[in-house]
Specification:
alpha/beta, six-stranded parallel beta sheet, 22 helices, about 15% strand, binds thiamine diphosphate, binds magnesium ion
Length: about 575
Amino acid sequence: MIVAEAVGRALAACGVGTAFGVVGSGNFHVTNALVAGGVRYVAARHEGGAATMADAYARMSGRVGVVSVHQGPGLTNALTGLTEAAKSRTPLIVVAGEATEVQSNFHIDQAALATAVGAVAMRVASPEEAVSRAVEAYRVAVQERRTVLLNLPLDVQAAPFEGPADVMPPPATAAAVPAAGSSGGPSAVPGAGSSGGPAAVPGAGEVAELARLLGAAERPVFIAGRGARHARRELEELAALAGALLATSAVAKGLFRGSPWDLDVSGGFATPLAAELIRGADLVVAWGCALNMWTTRHGTLVSPGAKVVKVDLDPAAFKTHVPADLGVAGDVARVAEALAAQVAPRTGYRSPEIAARVRAEGRWRDVPYEDESGGGRIDPRTLSIGLDDLLPRERIVAIDSGNFMGYPSMFVDVPDEGGFCFTQAFQSIGLGLATAIGAAIARPDRLPVAALGDGGALMGIAELETVVRLGLPMVIVVYDDEAYGAEVHHFGPHGHPLGTVTFPPADLAAIARGHGCAAVTVGGPGDLAGVAEWVDGPRDRPLLVHAKVTAEHGSWWLEEAFKGH
Ligand SMILES: Cc1ncc(C[n+]2csc(CCOP(=O)(O)OP(=O)(O)O)c2C)c(N)n1
Ligand SMILES: [Mg+2]
């Protein structure tokens, strides 16, 4: 056995989930060893796709994703996806060949590259440490929720490995990532506040103080983030006692689906009703949620008079973004449980009037709008509502970035927090299709839906062949405005020339058919019949919905986003 094989076997024995990659000489043996160890391998067509697939897979499966890349350009190609993963604290291991000879064409400072984007760099520097380094990479990925680059120098990985061939998984780490339930169970990889650790047991003083605040609040609102995705039951039970309304950040969308007190997403995607009720809160408790500018519309959704409490594993979260008046360090579920024993039942915000309003105005589709479809183009709201009606409810929705992104985020519903995959921590366009592939592999029980702009779709189109090759029953919706719409609406109103951000029509349906997809071009509401036909059929090929959308004006959440530029 050579060192590369020992590393692959060791990672497999640790219990990593699916591996994604593009194989070259520098990662050939380690990838084959992963496969020999029982790990599923998915070949992507671009390392950027592989990285994002692994990120999305990890988020939605609760297992550690692996990315396997060739030295040098294999790694640089993966960087945007790796940055997204690192910013999102996704447990990920990147195994990469490494050309340590500076004369090599493939040579770059790979460790510096990883560190620059927030990943942890490690190296198997000698044959003796092949296994221990692999196990350490797994431990750091899981326990510290980090994206880890495991460099495998070419000479070291080719050397004979003399140690034991079998590797025991490290104790306590494999169990630290909760398994994804098929529905509503402990969800994906832990976010802040879910995996246990030094601050997992809450301090009694802070808990008592939060119990006092909950006992005094007239209009409490809970906002749950990534770190609360495993804690639906505990939060719902506490909210029922405290009379709190329930909302989430975008990444936790769907967490409270089905509750009559669910306001859905807080932030730019919030309904007018949700925004009004969150602004009306006298106590906002953020659970595993940083309350960043997106979740709070630059702080404006939190009333100046409201008390703000953050419950998070990481006390560093307390003072960032909207700062907390009180911070409770601990695991979200355990804090909520401790509080439930101390809070007496009260009506709080849960009046019959509010219940009636949430029923009547709680979803975006309840908000009246004028359908602007016409002239061979469909209003993106009408498109999204139409798809929401047509597509099976057991779905997993992935969203790319751009002006269009709010339409599917707001109008296409998801069944729970395992139904929405939002790789937007780096705000990169082009990640949506690969996100949908990783999510689809994590949740084969659900219909994967990729919602993309034309710009993001064409940037990530290399993976269309992957969708077809894997036989994924995916619906890919392209909101095509023949432009980088976000830029058009950003600069257009100021009279700037827009030739650099507008494009002639591209026949995306033909491109999709060329890859082996079914495709339908939608230029008005009537064309959605083609989608219904696919849904009712055998779904033996992916479907690309090429929607020519109206684009006279920018979206309202984009206005909000520009404040962050
Ligand atoms: C990798 C990357 N390049 C450029 C940008 C800047 N950018 C943000 S949105 C956008 C336009 C996206 O166009 P499209 O996917 O068609 O969506 P639309 O805005 O038209 O709805 C661009 C270029 C970015 N965020 N990420
Ligand atoms: Mg566009």
